[in-house]
Amino acid sequence: MKPVLILLALAAAAGPVLAQNPHAPGRAFGLVVHGGAGVIDRERMPPELEAQYRAKLTEALDAGYAVLERGGPALDAVTTAVRILEDSPLFNAGRGAVMNADGVCELDASIMDGRTLEAGAVAGVQRVRNPIDLARDVMEKSAHVMMTGRGAEKFAESLGHELVPNEYFHTELRRRQLEEARAKETPRRASSARGAYGPFADAGDRHRIGELKFGTVGCVALDRSGNLAAGTSTGGMTNKKFGRVGDSPIIGAGTYAKNRTAAISCTGHGEFFIRAAVAHEVSAQMEHRGLTVADAAKAAIRNVGALGGTGGLIAIDARGNIALPFNTPGMYRGHRLAGKPATVEIYGK
What we know:
The chain has 349 residues and is of the alpha+beta class. The chain contains eleven helices and twelve strands. Mean pLDDT is 88; it is low at 1-23 and 188-207.
């Protein structure tokens, strides 16, 4: 055989191998994270507090990206990144979660595998240090999709999860937010709410004290094998009552992932995201109408706004295209894609 023909034959044989090799050069992979959407005021944000947010979001991005870079699955990247955000008191998830009307932290989380459409979720847990890990175990080690309250904690105990006193999640800031929310329910107490910051108040407290609904964390990831995953974790809404559950643990509302379309994690006023089935709607608009991930995500947030809701979402599709729309003044967000440095943003344009 002539040398040229030999080279062509070798190239033809190598083609399919490279196409299936998850470590092949140019293969798209990466992740996006969020730390909640809401009234994030650039003028009132102290520089030191902004630096803390940026550092923690970057830490989550770098840790999740390291999983993907070495060929790990998207699910591992998602749980790694979300766990870091759950452990930070800056966000409304895990340690630092907001308090319900009884002064207790109730935590929700969900995760979904875009390859298999398997999913797991927990709601109303009070002692599980990292709800995202328990949500994954519901997906992988049970026959169910969602577990709630004490039942979910019994399942966690059976698997050896770290359980902590509810006080582990408490922060002074969240206690003061609860006081303000309670005061607003009774107009004649509103005047005292203005002084609720007390001697603890600083510029950072005044900036964050009004964040009563937001701060949910989430991550979406695309791995080298082309698989997508999404995860979301939250403490819910300050002063929530009667076992209220928002969109974060509801598959199709706050979290969704499908390899054919995209992985999505939402944040905002959960009741509206439930009603609009936002996370699934992004996927459905891509699959059935042929919209790009950016256009589908923007349309979904417009639907939330039309209902009177506020918030945002993050999404990544099977080609590594991302979307981060929101209809609030800001959203803590960041992304790190193959071959590029981490990018973190907070404010709107």
